[in-house]
Amino acid sequence: MAKSKTGQAFSATLVSGGLYKRNQGRLVRQLTAIGLVAVAIFGAYSLYNALPLAMSPGMQKGIAVAVVVISIWLAYRVVNFPRFADFLISVEAEIGKVTWATWDQLWRSTAVVIVLMVLLALLLLAFDIVWQWFFRLIRFLQI
């Protein structure tokens, strides 16, 4: 992983607006930022519902919107922080090396998993019935 600009602190990058390695790791960085913003939106919604009812509705909404806006800026800056951006660039490069299964292999594997889960469920049902019968036979269960 490239280690340029490692001496730069995260607090120093908060006020800058530039992009770090603009065209590298673009998809992973965008999806990471979207995920961070989605978590922030759910958190702001929870905060909005948790704020005291004595507070005016405008103030409740203002606080929630401020949390979302600050979170959007932080998500944008986090994915452009050099060390984290280099990590995400490396992740995208490694994902590109993965050999993905074909649709036919995927369907066959899914069928195998489903059939095995049904067979295991039936086996556990059989064990349950046998143990219930045994415990009732020795009068351990009185149902």
Descriptive labels:
143 residues, mainly alpha, 2 domains, 5 helices, 71% helix, flat, disordered N terminus
How would you characterize this protein structure?
It is found in: Membrane. It holds the Pfam family SecE. This is Protein translocase subunit SecE. GO terms for molecular function: protein transmembrane transporter activity. It comes from Gimesia aquarii. The protein has 143 residues and is an all-alpha fold. The chain folds into two domains: 10-96, no CATH class; 100-143. It is 71% helix and 0% strand. It is built from five helices and no strands. It has helices at 10-13, 26-50, 57-78, 82-96, 103-137. α2 (26-50) packs across α4 (82-96). The longest helix has 35 residues, at 103-137. The radius of gyration is 27 Å and the shape is flat.
